[in-house]
Structures are given as structure tokens and as C-alpha cells.
Amino acid sequence: MADTQFDLIVIGGGPGGYVAAIRAAQLKMKVAVVEREHLGGICLNWGCIPTKALLRSSEISHLLRHLDEFGFAADNIRFDLAKVVKRSRAVANQLASGVGHLLKKNKIAVFSGQGRLDGTADGMRKIAVEKDGKPVAGLTAKNVILATGARARVIPGMEPDGKLIWSYREAMVPDIMPKRLLVVGSGAIGIEFASFFRNMGAEVTVVEMVDRILPVEDAEISAFARKSFEKQGIRILTGAKVGEVRKTGETIAVSLEAGGKTETIEADRLISAVGIVGNVEALGLEGTKVKVDRTHVAIDPFCATGEPGVYAIGDLAGPPWLAHKASHEGVVCVEKLAGLDVHPIDWTNIPGCTYSRPQVASVGLTEARAKEAGHEVRVGRFPFIGNGKAIAMGEPEGMVKTVFDATTGELLGAHMVGAEVTEMIQGYTIARTLETTEQELMHTVFPHPTVSETMHESVLDAYGRVIHY
């Protein structure tokens, strides 16, 4: 009979849960993971990884249609949508299967089913595991980490039906390439799908309730991205309210109100990308001191909840809703449990990335948030058009913006839009983690020619020392 007593039980095997489990095993803890659906979670199976595979295909589609700019020519360019989707699924499956191998390698027990808190016994947490409504196992552990993630928010009247109205899951495995696509929501998920389908040839309209797209980003970067998307032919409606959604045979008609005007948009498909809801149900939180705020579990900087011995990480524990944030929380949480000297989590040091064309990336405070926090700021900017490598790549559209405290020189935030900025943002993330000032960044030697030189020039610009613009 399988062992049922552990030092740590992790409920949820996504990028937060499985990383926490592995780190705990490295620290000589006896660990179990309870997963109800698939190891790797949404990220590996239906999120971060397969969408990047799709976006890579769409980047190739864009490049093939602009071969003349690089001196090439090709006729009858076409794509096989089924093969594009098949490749995406294969990439996801390869990585997801690797998670199972990693857990086995680290001698971590895996239980398939829904785990929930089931009281205590002799100072130990009891966990009941069920599958298809039937008991699978009764486990105990001193500590439990909840890592059950989140799911797409469903708006009444816009419920995904798998045919005309898609959630991210249907959008990831499209059976057709819609000629006309309506995307509701302009966060990272909505914008990435808008970019993918536009690059593949669809007519795309993006609808956003607030006054700008990518609302968590710096306003200047959002405005730059919007102009770029509109130049590609994406129609963007901000400050828009979605009214009646009518299915008309094989198409959909949506009533919208924006700018004091009402119009009806017809589309072949609608993607609902209006946020997420934490998976707090069926976890046995009733009667505990775990606080749930708007479907997310409240935690302290070491991921502890109000209930002794119960912790929460990842999307379940609130924003930012990012896989790397979940993994970092898992490591910090476990190392704190092990008695290591660990720094509390600073969520402003978690970089955010949107893998559209152009890409968007940021870390730290926006200019507006920095001012709201009472900082006197110095702001630097540098455009890609002033960078030799960006021009040589045929990617001159982009910019880097840095925000410093005018008194201390602290790097408060960094914001980017352009080719490969999701790879470059880590430089600024390291700088914030090390608490560097403008002086260290100015005296860092950046290789030439690289797009990363725009980062250096942006810092110089904040202090009136920019060279190439």
C-alpha cells in the first residue's frame, strides 16, 4: 500500500506546484503532489508553452509574406492549420511528460485526483483525495501548499460554446482559420491571440472595456503597441461595452457601445479573454482561517495563509498571474519552511511579458505608479530606430523606457516594446533584484551590435547622456 504520511503535500502540479515539490525534495523533505488533471498545469498544457509554439508559426507566416524586404521571393505561400496546431500540441505534450519524469527522479509521490483539506489529526494536516467522486487516498502532512491555479472568467451571455465563442482552449486548437475574429479583452492573452490570428491572415477586432489596451503596462508603452497593432490592420476599440451577443447560424453578431456610439460587429468567431477566476472550490477551505478575496487566496510575502500549516502560491494566490511568479513563490515558500534564510517576495520584481508582434515586457513600477508612490522621477527613452542591430534585423519598431528615482538613482521600473524584448527584460530584473542604481547600469558594457544596447541608451537618456539619438 502506498505511503500516506509526508512532510509536505502540494495540491496542484502546475509550474508552481511541481517546482515547489522538487525544491522540497532537494531539501530532504518527503513530498507528495496531488493533481486532478495533468502535470504541468495550464501553463505547459494549455497556456504559456503551446501559445508560444503557435506564435512562432505566426511569426514565420509574417516573415514569409515580407520576403521581398530581405531580397527573397516565393510563390504560393500557404499553411496547413492542422499541422500548425499539431506542432503546438506536440511541444506541449513533450514538456508536460517531462514533468512526470522530474517528479519520479526526485522520488516525489504523485496522486491523481482532487485534493482537499480534511481537518487535522495529531498536529498533522489531513488531505482527502478523490477522483470521479470516489475516495482515492487519505494523506497526512505537517504542511500543505495549495497550487490549484485559475480558470478563464466566463461573462454571462458570452459563454464559450466550443464553436462560435471560444475560450483560450478552443482558440489554441482552432478547427478553422476565421476570416473575421472578435477578441474581447486586451490583456496579454487577448493580445497574443489577436496577434497570432492577424499574422495568419484573419481580420481582427479587439474590444477593451477600459481606456487602453494592455492596461497593466506603462501608458506610453500601451499607446506605442496600439499604434503598431493598428498599423498591422488590427482594429482596436477601447472604452467599449459589450451588449447583446447573437448567434446567427455560422456567424456571431455583437452589439458594442463605444465613444457614445453603438454598432454591431459580425464575426466568424469570438474569443473571450476577460480575466481569470481562482480555483478555490472543493479545497475544504470552509471552517479554516484561509481568507479568500475575489476568488483568490490571501497570502503574506512567504506565501502563508491565515491557517497554520497551509500555504498558497501561483494564480490561486492572486496577481501577477504568471507561471514564473508561481514557481518563485513555490521555492520561497519551501525554503522558508525548511528554515533557510530567504528574502520575502517582492512582487514588483516579477517581470511581465506579452509575446505578440511586437512583444511587450516590463518590470517594476510604471511612470504613473512611481509618481503615485511619491517618487520624483527621471525617465529615459530610446527608440529601436536608433539601434543598428534592430535596423539590420528589419525590426526598427520599438522602444525602451526606464524610470529612476531622481534622488537615489534607484531603478523603479523598465518598460519595453519591440522585437525580442521578452528576452531582454531579464537584464533590468536582475538590476532591480541587485538594487543597482543608474551608475552601475551606465558603467555596464553592453555588446555591440545588439538590440540590448537600447537598454543602455535608455538609462543614459534619463540622465541627459544618450549617445545615439
Unreliable runs: none
**Share of helix among residues?**
25-40%
**Biggest sheet character:** 7 strands, mixed
Per DSSP, what share of the residues sits in E-state strands of 2 or more residues? 25-35%
| Number of DSSP helical runs | 13
How would you classify the quaternary structure? single chain
N-to-C CA distance: 70 Å
Q: Would you tell me the structural class of the helices and strands? A: alpha/beta
Task: Output mean pLDDT.
Answer: 96
Give the radius of gyration.
24 Å
The coarse overall form would be globular
Q: Helices, strands, pairings?
A:
Elements: E1 5-11, H1 17-26, E2 31-35, H2 41-46, H3 48-64, H4 81-105, E3 109-112, E4 114-121, E5 124-131, E6 134-146, E7 150-152, E8 165-166, H5 168-172, E9 180-184, H6 188-199, E10 203-207, H7 219-231, E11 235-237, E12 240-248, E13 251-258, E14 261-267, E15 269-272, E16 276-278, E17 292-293, E18 296-297, E19 310-312, H8 323-337, E20 352-354, E21 359-364, H9 367-372, E22 377-383, H10 388-393, E23 399-405, E24 411-418, H11 421-433, H12 438-442, H13 453-462
Keyphrases for this structure?
single chain; 469 residues; alpha/beta; seven-stranded mixed beta sheet; five-stranded parallel beta sheet; 13 helices; 24 strands; globular
Short description:
The chain has 13 helices and 24 strands. It is an alpha/beta fold. Helix 1 packs parallel to helix 8 and helix 3 packs parallel to helix 6.
Protein model, in words:
By secondary structure, this protein is an alpha/beta fold. Helix content is 30%, strand content 28%. It contains 13 helices and 24 strands. The strands form 6 sheets. Strands 1, 2, 3, 4, 5, 6 and 19 form a 7-stranded mixed beta sheet that branches. Strands 8-15-9-10-11 form a 5-stranded parallel beta sheet. A 5-stranded antiparallel beta sheet has the order 20-21-24-23-22, with helices on both faces. A hairpin with a 2-residue loop joins strand 17 (292-293) and strand 18 (296-297). The radius of gyration is 24 Å and the shape is globular.
